[in-house]
Amino acid sequence: MKGGIAMASTAGLAALEKITAPAAVVFDCDGTLMDTEPCADAARSTLFARRGHVYDDAARDSLVGLSVTQGGEVMARLFGGSPLQLARELEQELLAVVAIGAEPMPGAMDLVRYLAARVPIAVASNGPRVLLDKSLAHGGLSRWLPITVSGDDAAAPKPDPACYLAACAALGVAPTSALAVEDSLIGARAAHAAGMTVLGVSGLTCGPYVHAHAPALDDAALRSWFAGW
Fold first, then answer.
1. What are the pLDDT tens digits along the chain (229 aa)?
2. CA-CA distance, 7 to 4, in Å (whole number)?
3. Among residues 190, 192, 191, 210, which one has the least CA distance to residue 202?
4. What is the C-alpha separation between 211 and 28, in angstroms, rounded?
5. Domain ranges for the chain
6. 3 state SS of 24
7. How far apart are alpha carbons 26 and 97 in whole angstroms?
8. How would you classify the pairing of strands 121-124 and 212-214?
């Protein structure tokens, strides 16, 4: 099993190994740096149950990667109600569960600390400012990430490229010279539209918006590639 993972990772990184080391790295937060997806599932499940609906796989697929505002709009279409009210409830539920349950993804802290000493790094998230700040602080990552762009800061949420363009501007680098690290297709579309090279992690494998893939941030082949910068 371990050998199969290593081989797949090495193959997935082959495309990046041909590219000049990026001038900066911009990370997504939820599901990329922070393991907040279980928190998001718990928050959404609470809202669905409150309105007499089951939070199943189909519902999850329709909500993963969306901003809180977008989530409110989707839920309003699914079972009615005010999109704004649903978004507010979702944000409050997320804040409650993130404060006690969010943890860094495996390898996230070591990788962020390592890269911060070598290149400018930032975060571009669809999450609201209060949630992004709480999540990164709870995970102990804030000290290495002084530049963050939240869903509240961008002109439009992912898959619009606004948050990635804003992050690159804040770092003082051209998007075409920066690397985006994403775990969702919506996020990959945003980074790709910004002109960035996209590294997909976890279940986000290579495709039209993803240049290379690694199964996790602590993947040996990925760390080897970063060490060669």
1. 333 334 445 546 777 787 788 999 999 999 999 998 888 899 999 999 999 999 999 999 999 878 889 999 999 999 999 999 999 999 889 888 887 878 999 999 999 999 999 999 999 999 889 889 989 998 999 999 999 999 999 999 999 999 999 999 999 999 999 999 999 999 999 999 999 999 999 888 878 999 999 999 999 889 989 988 8
2. 5
3. 210
4. 16
5. 2-35+102-227, 37-101
6. strand
7. 25
8. unpaired
CATH 3.40.50.1000 given to domain 2-35+102-227? yes
For residue 48, give the amino acid letter: F
| pTM (2 d.p.) | 0.83
Most distant pair of Cα atoms in the chain: their distance: 53
Close Cβ partners of 100 (under 8 Å, ≥ 6 residues apart): none
Residue with token string 């309105």: 51
